[in-house]
Design a protein that fits this description.
The protein is α+β, with helices and mostly antiparallel strands and 223 residues long. 38% of the residues lie in helices and 29% in strands. Helix 1 crosses helix 3, helix 2 crosses helix 3 and helix 4 packs across helix 7. The radius of gyration is 20 Å and the shape is elongated.
Length: 223
């Protein structure tokens, strides 16, 4: 994304484009950017082509909303500026409520391609399964979104048995401050931004005597 498009995306965010759809005309946006109406309209078209905004024509003109990918691009700049102007935090804390999934974590962690890559990149063999945590507070959901912008440890997409398996971003973590593991941000998942999945060398439910509905604190280590 070039500089002109980034600042256009930034202006849309400033007037509420991240929170939900906003009604803003090309003329009003042009005034905010200090460019012609034609230039503002072209930039909106380019942002839409790149999948950073979605637009809907309404009786008031047009409704614009920044997409998840657009928000991620903004988070990346935010994280970069934090690293310039603030001391980098060593850990970020996330708290979530344990819930039972549908067994997908067990299936995927058991796949040779993932297991071998976890061993190579994280230094441990994961227990076959994930601990699912539902993030309840706005702060924790925002923290999870912030992690999307940090580099992390990347497990790239790969093929196995004629099937393609998606990219995973991993962060080293301490579960309840004492058990080593990793927080996973999975590229292909049916969960929303309010869920994280945790892997560890041990069966976490047993090691921490966890039941559905109990809260767990994860200390994510930023490298």
């Amino acid at each position: 994304m070039n500089e002109e498009l980034w600042f256009t995306l930034y202006e849309i965010a400033l007037v509420g484009g991240c929170e939900g759809g906003i009604d803003i005309s090309s003329t009003r946006l042009a005034d905010r950017l200090g460019v012609s109406q034609q230039t503002a309209a072209r930039r909106l078209q380019d942002l839409e082509k790149e999948g950073l905004i979605v637009r809907e024509i309404t009786a008031k003109g047009q409704n614009i909303k920044i997409t998840k990918e657009g928000v991620r691009r903004l988070w990346e700049v935010y994280v970069g500026l934090k690293r310039v102007f603030e001391e980098k935090p060593q850990t970020i804390k996330v708290k979530g409520e344990v819930f039972s999934g549908m067994g997908e974590g067990r299936y995927y962690v058991s796949i040779d391609g993932y297991r071998k890559r976890f061993e190579e990149k994280l230094g441990f063999t994961p227990y076959p399964g994930t601990l699912n945590l539902k993030l309840k507070s706005y702060h924790d959901v925002q923290t999870r979104r912030l992690l999307e912008a940090y580099p992390g440890i990347i497990i790239e997409e790969f093929e196995e048995g004629g099937r393609t398996f998606g990219r995973v971003k991993c962060f080293r973590a301490l579960i309840e401050g004492k058990i080593e593991g990793s927080l996973l941000l999975i590229n292909r998942t049916h969960y929303g931004d309010d869920v994280v999945e945790i892997i560890s060398p041990v069966f976490l439910r047993e090691a921490l005597n966890l039941k559905d509905g109990e809260n767990v604190t994860i200390y994510v280590i930023l490298e």
